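Form P-L/3: holo structure prediction, ligand alpha-D-glucose-1-phosphate-6-vanadate.
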Amino acid sequence: MQISTFTTHPFDDQRPGTSGLRKKVKVFQSQSYLENFVQSIFDTQTDLAGGSLVLGGDGRYYNREAIQIILAMAAANGLARVIVGQGGLLSTPAVSCLIRKYQTNGGIILSASHNPGGPDEDFGIKFNTPNGGPAPESVTEAIYHRTREINQYRMLDADTIDLDHTGTIKLGDTQVEIIDPVADYAELMGELFDFEQIRQLFSAGEFRMRFDAMHAITGPYAKHILEDILGAESGTVINGEPKEDFGGGHPDPNLVHAHEIVTLTTGPDAVDFAAASDGDGDRNMILGRDFFVTPSDSLAVMVATARLIKGYSDGIAGVARSMPTSQAADRVAAALGLTCYETPTGWKYFGNLLDAGRITLCGEESFGSGSNHIREKDGLWAVLFWLNLLAVRRAPVADIIRQHWREYGRNYYTRYDYEGLDTEAAAGVIRYLQQQLPQLQGADLGSYQVEYADDFEYTDPIDSSKSTHQGIRIGFTEGSRIVFRLSGTGTSGATLRVYLEAYEADPDQQERATAEVMAPLVELAGELAQIEARTGRAEPSVIT
Ligand code: VG1
Ligand code: CO
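OUTPUT (holo model):
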């Protein structure tokens, strides 16, 4: 088989965002677009030549074609070994698990996560480093700089590889191993959680759950683990078959997009526990009967109860949350004498803290939580954590959360997303807020007094790398906060995210409707940022 070298020209828009490079499928399909980015990975990550790689995606439209291209390029760039999920499928957490287990020189994940899929929708590619985590900024910047000067890429002239049968294939000098995408991940889950105890919970017959895979990657994982291994009744996993367009849905596990599963938790036939995951399997939504657990509360409960769970029974080292995530976990950490780190948005910022053993658990308000078992957030892991906790406690989800609030106080939380904004108008909102920061310090805004107002900066405690302009943070003296930032995962226009949090220590005030509690903060946020005047939007597109 022969290696061909193709001449190419740089694209100017291949800088990875919060989580990899995301564009419309049509952009990735255009001449040399995917090839340029992949060659830039091989050119900058020099250990890959003669080394090994994990490769898989969430099964969205263009996944299979992209895998064939990347395999032919891997062979032409001297990779010794590529591990690929059968059918080209691997969840994001499974890729992280495999990189660590087989000690590869990295991994490539094909996904645009919770963004819709299909010929006119989104595709994405992300490189993970040998620790199993998303590449840090230093690596993504190196790849980006390479994409600005690239002039050729290499490919093996190879036939299409059969991805649908497990086994080993030789592609030039490269060994391609097609593996069961679920087995290694399921084994790891069995080490962390008490499967026997969860089995007993299901077999007692009084506990019912549903898991919505949203026609995305977690279907096969959830079916195998929940139904085959743990004995949940057949039909526990709904929408379990991965589809290229996610069945036309938006595979984002929140109250808006995962509405189907929410309806199963209400009414006379409601299940006791329900959950959903996103396109690539790293997000989770946790629901009890008539009860929604905010991701921020979920993290706080995990920190508070970790000792009850097999894999964390020795206690945890510390915790981290992304800046916009509520401060609920901070309160638990303080009570337990643990450090709680506040990092910028995106999982890559947890990597160094996990590697250095500073933290064991971490999470984001955007339905993401995880631990030191891998270096990605992990949707099914969170579901199994909750299942294990329910098996220990034998109490309804709502009771566990209410008890938590009584003990630590409640952090009411909501996020407003203004999607598809004019890019300049959205940038103008942030600039306007930046200009106001000096005057905001200590200011009285109605009944609120500003304790701090800044443009969030983070210096990594391990390697001292600095990240600036990570969002506008306005904290008030009584514990409330407003945060503004622009999304880094969209593929058209801009998305403004407004994160709102209000703290309530009084147990008699902890059952109010979130919208009612948040109303004054919503109004204040709108005024501070001149949202309607600058964007033309009176209402957000999504509230979570
Ligand atoms: C969003 C979330 C962020 C998350 C990122 C990737 O980023 O806010 O918390 O880490 O998506 O998640 P942004 O820049 O759009 O706010 V996933 O599930 O897309 O890999
Ligand atoms: Co995701």
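COMMENT: The chain has three domains: 3-181, 185-408, 410-543.
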